[in-house]
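Possible regression after last week's pipeline update?

I re-ran a chain I had predicted before the update to compare outputs. Posting the input and the new output here so someone can diff against the archived version. Not blocking, just want to make sure nothing changed silently.
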Amino acid sequence: MKLFEGKSKSEQYKMIAAAVLGVVALFSLVYLFFGDSFGSSYKISRAIQPPKETPTPHGPTKDDLDEYKQISYELIAPPSVEAGRNIFDIFIPITVERPTQLLQPPMPEQLPMTLTSISPSNVYARTPDGFTLLVIGDKFTTDSRISFDNNELPTRFITPQQLSATVPPSFIANDGARQITVRTPDGKLYSNQATLNVMAAPAPNYAYVGLIGDKYYNKDIAILRDKANPKSVESVRRGQDVNDRFRVVSISETEIVLIDKILKIKHQLAMTSDKNASASVPGFGNNPSLQPYNRNYPQGSIPGIPDNVPRYQPPKKADDDDDDDDDPNP
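New output (post-update):
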């Protein structure tokens, strides 16, 4: 061969070996890229080929026929789902019936008469003289009457906008709220309600703890203790003021009576059993006459009457038996 001319044996062997290696390399590359397609086509061809039937002398049996039963498959298409919607959402249509007419809020009741305000709106309980109540409103008539806690009061008609009535002291004997209305005797005309606040009157914050008794009850001294300051003790007489608002009008062994100079309300303070408070009265020390209920009057004396005034002696009923025993000359 011209390819090997002029070549030594070793060079020829090398050229042959290089050619063989090139062929092997080329075959390896072809198998690397196309070997799977070759194998799969072979497998498919083998799978397509029907199995060879082995002839039997008597033909196919019943068991052989059972192996070739036709199988039918029912294909169930999945439900169609709208794009962008959750398949687990359940939509239930709701029908809302709209009313033919829009509901209107109920109109407030138009009262025949209107009560706007009362004067005064606050009073103190136990006011001795009562007070005059003025009612202000509208559409009042001449036969309208002021009702005080369902008690009809004699009413004076001033104008269709004003009525007045005098409230007796018994109606405000206790504190609390009172309902005021205006109505006619037949009940056909009436008004709304107003509230009158009856407040508790301010009371003296003192305790009556002792009495310095005068022989004839003319110069009795009451011992008062301030409840806010138990160490503060004050002695007062009839006609004196306590705390610049209450005046002493009566002193006795059981109680002291004070009157409110502004409201004219009386307050009774009962005697307490605090006997130790009298010992702290300035200027008296531990005088035993400070103890409550202790009046050292002469035997048989009458308060307000001098002892030298003769007393009336009722006649003594005569006893026949006593006369016989006492008569020295029978």
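Follow-up from reviewer: compared with the archived run. The chain has a mean pLDDT of 76. Marking as no regression found.
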